[in-house]
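User: For a reading group we're discussing how well predicted structures match intuition. Take Mediator of RNA polymerase II transcription subunit 7. Before you show the prediction, I'll give you the sequence so everyone sees exactly what went in.
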Amino acid sequence: MATATYPPPPPFYRLYKDYLQNPKSAPEPPPPIEGTYVCFGGSYTTDDLLPSLEEQGVRQLYPKGPNVDFKKELRSLNRELQLHILELADVLVERPSQYARRVEEISLIFKNLHHLLNSLRPHQARATLIHILELQIQRRKQALEDIKRYVAGVSWKGSHVVMEPELVVVWLC
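Assistant: Thanks. Here is the predicted 3D structure of Mediator of RNA polymerase II transcription subunit 7, as structure tokens, for the group to look at:
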């Protein structure tokens, strides 16, 4: 039995045979998936919402509502976490059999910290995108200034271009 090194292309490649002559002959791409879908046996959704702690079955340690002071709450939870870790160390020394409750409390604090940080992800993504776009604008303005400086140093003498030597060095660097 002979085997091929590479499998044959999928049968729908024939739909694109006239693409170079007529790009409109190719079929339209499928519409984006909306709602829930199944992939590799798992059910996923296209709604990008952060589930609340209550939906996850976790008690929320910080105030509910849209006007949460993230900085204050993160600091508060961090201090509480430090305190609980010290208490856990004390319990492990004094009463090692009673550590489970302290570990559960620490786990609850970590879940709340994690949820607060995930709530900040959209803001972080927006800020990162703004920063990237500002850098792109800055690079393009710098490139434009370099081109203007280069063009200013070029002079035409008949059909020949004469460049000033220091501009050539700047342009090549």
